[in-house]
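Hi, here's the filled form for the chain we discussed.

Project: internal
Contact: R.S.
Residues: 279
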Amino acid sequence: MTRIKIRYLTLFILLLTLSWTLVTQASQQTRTTELTQSSSDRTAKKNKAKNRQHNSQTTLSKKQHSQTSTSTNKTRSINKSQPAAKKTKPSRPVNKKTTAKITSASKSKTAVRPDKCVNKKGQKIACASKSLKSQTLAQAHNARIQKAQKTAMNKLMAQLGKPYHWGGTSPMTGFDCSGLVYYAYKDLVNFRIPRTANEMYHLEDATKINRSELENGDLVFFRIQGRGTADHVGVYVGNGKFIQSLRSGRDIQITSLSENYWQRHYVGARRVMTAKTLR
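And the returned structure, exactly as it came back:
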């Protein structure tokens, strides 16, 4: 009996120890699972917080970017609508003398240059430009020259048929070649007309011209007797003809330049009536 009791006790003790080990193992497992769960929960919470912060930062950056873009667009539109502001120079102390000089210079400029077509109030007014002034001056010069040419032609044509007279310069006595030219131009030009054909040919106040450019009143020169550069002179009257007082026994007449004799002895032409030489 005692042996049986000992066996039961040992079995009971074994069962208690087994149950105790099982309980301790189960408690340890539950603790480990709880610890793992708590750590996983903590990490999940941390991740969620991080995600929330990241999302808030991204939304803030987006808002700031949109605000900056809208502000830049507004400034661009404002800059487009408004004209660019001029750079202002630093103001200097006002000097009465300099301001008076500047105002007088501006007044003189406006007085000298009326082609700006602006009056004192800044309003545009009708005025003539430089080109128009030059055109009007050229027209006035041409009118003066044409009038002088007509006067010279009338004086010359009135002498047709009068006899040649050596050294003559008057309609009362007659003319030689240079005397006829002297009579026609002495009251029209502002320089002294010489008395010989050679001197007229070398006259500084007369302009040398080509034969194709001849106009009424131009002087045509010839070398007939071989004395000097030119020893005979006539006046061109248009249509390839000239008026001359040739020699004794011949009257004042109109001759054609196209004749072979005059083409052989022709030496040149000069223009004595210009805008500078007319009185």
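Let me know if anything looks off before we file it.
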